[in-house]
Amino acid sequence: MSHSVLRKQIGLKKRIDEFLDQVSEASLLFKQGVGFYIDEKHDQFEQKLNQISTVEHHGDEMRRAIERQLYLKTLIPESRGDVLQLLEQLDTLLDCCKEVLWQFQIELPEVPYKSHDDMQELVSYSVESVEAIVRSARAFFRSSDVSDHLHKVSYWESESDKVTTRMLMDIYRRDDLSLCHKSQLKDLVRQVAQIADRAEDVADRLTIYVIKRML
Fold first, then answer.
1. How far, in Å, CA of 74 to CA of 65, rounded?
2. Pair 62, 41: CB distance under 8 Å
3. Mean pLDDT in residue range 110-119
4. Would you list the domain boundaries of the chain?
5. What was the pLDDT predicted at 12?
6. How many of the other CB atoms lie within 10 Å of CB of 111?
7. Model pTM score
8. Class for the domain spanning 2-213
9. What is the CA radius of gyration of the chain?
């Protein structure tokens, strides 16, 4: 490999690392934002909402720049399609974190005090799943072992499912909530849990890419 191509490869990996930073940061901002919403710290919530919108915009710009570099510089042509698909799937995680936080802002759901801890736990598990898939992707691009990180994605998604089931059962067994309120909370819980579901979807695809690399 020539020095010129090697430099381009290193530059590309640096850009991918920076993009992964944005995905990770979005998940952390999402966690903080939900925490501030539940604690009724409105100014701090608004701040996180603005920050995650900025991060999502930067993430989109980075992904498009990486895609252009892959096409114009004809880098890693043997796996370019896999890389592009992986980046797009990771970008959906970034989008999802922003969209769910905006759902809180738009709908202004009243999360019952009894559900506060469960909601925080569900958010934590979804964020852990995003963090695990980000570490998996970093390992993949560095040609390192990804199996341990991928396993953790599945673990946190499973924990998210357990909390989701518990929360939904509790919501629909309460007599002090209207049916409309229950429906709103159900949708909110499922949207938060979907972040972990999407992380697992990315992990499933990444598993296939790892196998293809070994062939």
1. 14
2. no
3. 95
4. 2-213
5. 80
6. 18
7. 0.91
8. mainly alpha
9. 19
What is the distance, to the nearest Å, from the Cα of residue 41 to the centroid of all Cα atoms in its chain? 24
Distance of CA 32 to CAs 35, 44, 111, 207, Å?
A: 5, 9, 16, 30
With bands split at pLDDT 50, 70 and 90, how would you rate the model's confidence at 6? Answer: very low
* pLDDT (0 to 100) of residue 9: 65
Which two structure tokens, joined as six digits, stand for 194?
A: 């979907």
Residue pointed to by tokens 């090697």: 6
- Name the token pair of 141: 């691009």
Least Cα distance to 177 among 99, 124, 113 occurs for: 113
Interacting residues of 190 by C-beta distance below 8 A, sequence separation 6+: 164
Note the residue count of the chain: 215
Distances (CA, A) of 57 to 3, 14, 62: 33, 19, 9
The greatest distance separating any two alpha carbons of the chain, rounded to the nearest whole angstrom, comes to: 70
Look-up of token digits 């390992």: 139
